[in-house]
Amino acid sequence: MPAADVLPPEVVRAAVGDGDLLDVVAEPLGGGTGAATASVVRFRGRVLRGGEVVPFSLVRKTVRPVTTGRHAAAAVRPDHWAHWRREPLAYASGLLPAGPHLFSPRCFGAGEDVVHLEDVTGPAPSPVEAAAALARWQTPTHVGPPALPWLADHPLAQRLAVTDLDLTSAADARFGVLLQKAWTDRWTLLARLDDVPRVLTHGDLGLGNLVRTDRGIVAIDWATTGTAPVGADLALLVLSLERPAEADEPVAAYLAGTDPGLTPERVLLGYRVTALLTGISRMHWMLARGDAPPPGYVDLLTDLLDAIGDP
């Protein structure tokens, strides 16, 4: 549909430079399922510049307050992972990665409830590539992540505060009792992260939010960016794999790219506790829907529990 009147001229100039706008069409996208996402729209258009027709494509993401669901009451806080204004604030801050190892989409304009972004397309990187890029961007920030009020503060702890699970009726004897005990001990496990250094995090870093482009690996959807124990984003990456049990290579790549000021033991503790507690919660959700966990998922969780040891 024609949408020239809803695409600000300054956004077009930021994307393609000066020129006369010839036409633009809006295409609503099916993605953008975050708690605070109102809509995601792709704009394709053409600009006439110096006698040349220049095509462009960009994405507008609009956000809104979270008013329903179990996180609505807490999401009014700027430090909550579901706070609605975080993504525009993050892009306006200049805090997001701009290479050389990891990139965020180029931003062409951010307002209170909207952000206009580079239209990023391409295949997902390999898990090893993603883990290496993540470590080289992320782990140097352990020396002092910025104290900004809108950064999500330890999203795992925030999620656990409003989550309770009973695995005994949904899981079979192979893992139900074992993982239910781990879940019952979740606060003790979480407390073990108190001494793990904090780093800047993406907060939702599955392979579905990573794109390999000509300029490198681009991470999209920064609505949950914040600070968390080192290894937390690695845990989310591993849990997004088709075969999560095949985690050894991305974990090794992350450790190889980690800042020398961080000990592997602390990184692994942050990764293991986050992956275990997040993985148990996700498995409960899958079983409640009648879905089988991916191959190796249960093996990964039990291996993580063995590696962590008794709380």
Give the structure's gist in a few sentences.
42% of the residues are buried.
Summarize this structure as a short list of keywords or feature phrases.
alpha+beta, Aminoglycoside 3'-phosphotransferase, Chain: A, domain 2, three-stranded mixed β-sheet, 11 strands, 33% helix, 20% strand, globular
List the helices and strands and how they pair.
Blueprint: H1 9-16, E1 20-28, E2 37-49, E3 52-63, H2 86-93, E4 102-103, E5 107-110, E6 114-118, H3 127-138, E7 152-153, H4 155-160, H5 176-184, H6 186-191, E8 198-201, E9 210-213, E10 216-219, E11 226-229, H7 232-239, H8 248-257, H9 264-288, H10 297-308
Parallel strand pairs: 4-10, 7-11
Antiparallel strand pairs: 1-2, 2-3, 3-6, 5-6, 8-11, 9-10
Helix pairs in contact: 3-7, 3-8, 7-9, 9-10
Description of the structure:
It is a single chain. Helices cover 33% and strands 20% of the residues. The protein is an alpha+beta fold. The protein has a domain at 121-308: Alpha-Beta Complex (Aminoglycoside 3'-phosphotransferase, Chain: A, domain 2), CATH 3.90.1200.10. The protein has a five-stranded antiparallel beta sheet, sandwiched between helices. Strands 4-10-9 form a three-stranded mixed beta sheet. The chain has a three-stranded mixed beta sheet with strand order 7-11-8. It is globular. The N and C termini lie far apart (57 Å).
